[in-house]
Amino acid sequence: MAGQHGDVGEDVHSYVLVTGANGGLGYAICCRLIDEFILTRSSFHSLRLIITTRDRTKSHDTIARLKDHIFRTRKQHKVHEKTPLVAKIYLQAEQADLCRLQSVQALSRKLLHSLPKLDTIILNAGHGGFTGLDWPLATWTILTNFPHSVTYPTFKTSETATTTAPQVSRVVASDAKEEPPLGDVFCSNIFGHYMLVHAVVPLLSNSSTTPGRIVWISSLEAYESTFSSSDIQGLQSPSAYESSKRLTDILALSSTLPATRPSVQAFLPTPSGHRPPKQYVTHPGICATNILPLHWLLVYVMTAAFYLARWVGSPWHTVSAYTGACAPVWLALSSQEELDAAEEKDGAGKWGSGVNSQGEERVMRTEVQGWGVGGKVGDNISLPSNRRPREVVDLNEKDREGFEVLGRECWQSMERLREQWENLLTADDD
């Protein structure tokens, strides 16, 4: 994908923040950002890559590994041999625990005082809350429904009704009678990011050439059946991870619709004369990461199954996190003109990292239940059967209208929740 990227506007200094950068997809996104920036930008450009991890030890380790990666990339491609590479890529480590809202506020305050702008924020951090596998179901579905069963799995087991540790002091909580529950997976995957983005809108709207970009990381497992607008945090859901990813899709894809505009404007309060950030949603395909707790031997079995699925025709089994980072990095580094043209033609899409049977990577649109490929009824975009869940039907007017209503409800709920927690945190500081 490197050769397809243009400049991010005319500004030669790019600022990109990646959450959850110490391993898995987050670390791969950082490596790929570095590689593609080096290969597609002249020596006059610079990238400041801000990474977040949960503690200083992980930050120091991640920075050391990224420096080694920069050195290897420079050596492999023999680029800018007369110009020190350090003048082009700058690394900055910050700490934040997305399940501790005070930690998120501390990070946002630091960023507001230390950065002139943010071109892109990639919201990658999170966790699955998985406890293991339903082995009888896994065995049966893999034997009878392969590779669909390892593309859209339904056999993972998860914790239910797990909440974060208390966010505010006992005094404040007792004044409010009881601190409202905050779902652990919901906070890690969605709400911590939501609070962070709202706080750093001044940075995202401060670019002189292009609007800032908010890149939400979703999943192929964002099943419609796992989500309910009456349980937006997924506290009652046996599939909290999948519920949070469905919510991610809903928020991002409905963010430009008329029904959601009041809530989105409250979420992204852009200063007069500045352009509001744009929101995108993407997913890495199916990667062999450690999000699911498995014995090391089963990790090899899982990886082999993923390669087999790719060889028999699945376009979504990217397997490696680096390949899975293809779509997120494309959204971060492509020219605004390219992204606008893609979404103006076929509508706002969920952009996925995909491969062919030989592992050659590409960015592909992904069908979303209730939204289709681009939110347009009768758009005549028909995806091959191996790129869509079997239960998905072609988009119709009723489902499209229902998605917009659902989007409005979700945005309103998220804004109420944000205001509620901001008030609690402010009272706790006083």
Helix/strand/pairing category: alpha/beta
Beta-strand fraction estimate: 5-15%
**Strand order across the largest sheet:** 3-2-1-4-7-8-9-10
Give the helix level as a range of percent: 40-55%
User: Quick one: how many beta strands?
Assistant: 10
Which key phrases capture this entry?
430 residues; 8-stranded mixed beta sheet; 15 helices
Topology:
Elements (H helix, E strand, L loop, with lengths): L12 E7 L4 H17 L5 E8 L2 H22 L11 E7 L5 H14 L5 E4 L6 E4 L1 H10 L3 H4 L4 E3 L11 H6 L8 H16 L1 H4 L8 E5 L22 H14 L7 H7 L10 E6 L12 H16 L9 H4 L1 H8 L2 H11 L3 E6 L5 E6 L30 H33 L1
Parallel strand pairs: 1-2, 1-4, 2-3, 4-7, 7-8, 8-9
Antiparallel strand pairs: 5-6, 9-10
Helix pairs in contact: 1-2, 1-13, 3-7, 7-9, 9-15, 10-15
